[in-house]
Amino acid sequence: MIGYTLTPEQYEQVQGQFINPYQFINCVQDIDGNWFFFGNEQDKQAFANTEFMWLFDLPEAEYIPPIPPPFPPTE
What we know:
Structural class: alpha+beta
Distance between the termini: 36 Å
Number of helices: 2
Number of strands: 6
Number of domains: 1
Order of helices and strands: EHEEEEHE
Oligomer: single chain
Shape: elongated
């Protein structure tokens, strides 16, 4: 999966910020601890005329999710 990469500072700047009353920015961390933002064309339209449109100009990279913790054993 391809996403937009953020620096830790950019992540702190945008994480949890609302772009309208119904949508907020939620970034995720990859297996290496890098922060990613994901957005499609529909999202791009929602971000138009907001202070966060620059997110779509960030470098793109392959997102590799972290390995989930093991499930506890069942009895």
